């Protein structure tokens, strides 16, 4: 189960930051678009098998232009038989990086909706790859006209559906 948690955490992190990265050789990077993914996971809180954590979240990433966008996460999180509502928004900025065509992603602002009661420790441990203001690296590749493959150093991959 520890291996499943180790694999699942990077996948979740990737689901947040991967779609934000545009690569310059595609038509997608020149116009606004949105990308949608679903994240479902069951793992254990801080490796304690007595405290299961179940996540079912939809992620909508909207690119406003080539460098800026918004991530909206909504769904439910369950820990220790408590069910929490998740509805958060994170603004981000991307910038070019010399590392294998990857881009640097930086979260700039974060807001929780008034109905969101997900504890901050769950949000930070399962959803945020870095703190606000700290950059990280990611890259994407179009598989076809509406599907994007997302890859980062610490995450295997994510498939995201593009909505225009």
Describe this structure in words.
The chain is mainly β and 164 residues long. It has one domain. It is built from 2 helices and 8 strands, in the order αβββββαβββ. It has an 8-stranded antiparallel beta barrel. Strand 6 and strand 7 (147-152) form a beta hairpin. The protein is globular. The relative contact order is 0.23. The model is unreliable at 18-28 (pLDDT under 50).
Please outline the major beta sheet: 8 strands, antiparallel, barrel
**Total E-strand runs:** 8
Strand order of the largest sheet: 1-2-3-4-5-6-7-8
Per DSSP, the total helix count is 2
Q: How are helices and strands ordered from N to C?
A: HEEEEEHEEE
Distance between the termini: 38 Å
Itemize the secondary structure elements and their pairings.
Blueprint: H1 2-17, E1 33-44, E2 52-63, E3 68-79, E4 82-96, E5 103-112, H2 120-127, E6 135-144, E7 147-152, E8 155-163
Antiparallel strand pairs: 1-2, 1-8, 2-3, 3-4, 4-5, 5-6, 6-7, 7-8
